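Weekly sync, protein design subgroup
Attendees: M.S., D.O., the rotation student, P.L. (late)

Item 1: inverse folding check
M.S. brought a backbone from last month's batch and wanted to see whether the design step gives back something sensible before we order anything. D.O. pointed out we never logged the input encoding, so this time it goes straight into the notes. Structure tokens as presented (288 positions):
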């Protein structure tokens, strides 16, 4: 158990540091510290998401009995991945610090920046803390080996993360006008809705099929704390999906209405944390 936790504790920060160093030193790239920090954080998040969704697919498709069947990858990946959520809190803070420096707040102290970061990213930080302090012990100890199928389904929620990260990178480098950005935005909407919103009704439906109940009867047939847990997990996903939809709607309005007015461009940049006079495009608020 401890070996897997230790491996994850080395893998994710190590990958972040290696990526940042390569981005700064490769002759064809040579990005500055801030850009290397943001790209490296997105890269690590995407790799973790690919690993988690792959593990989830293997687990979910291997469990024919959705209650009793077990797969060794379930607990193993949980133990390996839990350090990622601790690391990612740090990585998000480093991204936030860079955005503040771009806006001209280099002089703010670490303590002040940390408090502002916690206020701005409260929902995401809370999500990560709950994953480590609640979901981790529940998944490893409280389940007692049951329900690996559902744990695999939860891993599949990470399938939307790579498109979220790519979208932010394209925005950072002012590629909002490209076909890639539009296609990636559509893919992000579909994967987020399918893997993070419809995921919960699907798991209710799968359990109902297993025990011979219609979907609408399942919430009344399972313990109340199961429904409460599902609601608490789904609530932030609905909130983040609403933010994605708002961003997609703004993009759609621009496509229909043509080039935005200078005032709209300035407001968009200020809203997303980048000053126009620094030569950077806006980076949208993190929604993964």
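Designed sequence read out in the meeting:
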């Amino acid at each position: 158990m401890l070996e897997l936790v230790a491996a994850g504790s080395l893998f994710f920060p190590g990958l972040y540091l290696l990526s940042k160093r390569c981005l700064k030193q490769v002759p064809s790239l040579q990005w500055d510290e801030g850009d290397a920090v943001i790209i490296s954080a997105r890269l690590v998040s995407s790799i973790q998401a690919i690993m988690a969704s792959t593990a989830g697919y293997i687990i979910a498709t291997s469990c024919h009995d959705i209650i009793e069947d077990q797969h060794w990858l379930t607990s193993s990946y949980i133990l390996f991945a839990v350090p990622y959520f601790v690391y990612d809190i740090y990585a998000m803070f480093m991204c936030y610090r860079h955005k503040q420096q771009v806006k001209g707040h280099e002089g703010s102290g670490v303590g002040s920046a940390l408090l502002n970061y916690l206020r701005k990213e409260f929902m995401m930080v809370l999500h990560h803390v709950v994953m480590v302090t609640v979901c981790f012990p529940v998944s490893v100890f409280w389940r007692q080996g049951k329900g690996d199928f559902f744990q695999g389904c939860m891993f599949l929620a990470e399938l939307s993360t790579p498109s979220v990260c790519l979208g932010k990178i394209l925005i950072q480098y002012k590629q909002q006008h490209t076909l890639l950005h539009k296609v990636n935005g559509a893919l992000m909407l579909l994967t987020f809705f399918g893997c993070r919103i419809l995921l919960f009704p699907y798991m209710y439906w799968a359990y109902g099929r297993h025990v011979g109940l219609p979907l609408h009867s399942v919430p009344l047939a399972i313990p109340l704390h199961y429904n409460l847990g599902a609601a608490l997990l789904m609530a932030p996903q609905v909130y983040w999906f609403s933010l994605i939809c708002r961003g997609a709607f703004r993009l759609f309005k621009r496509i229909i209405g043509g080039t935005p007015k200078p005032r709209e461009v300035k407001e968009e940049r200020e809203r997303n944390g980048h000053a126009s006079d620094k030569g950077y495009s806006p980076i949208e608020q993190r929604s993964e």
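Discussion: Residues 264-288 have pLDDT under 50 and may be disordered. The chain has twelve helices and no strands.
Action: P.L. to compare against the previous round before Friday.
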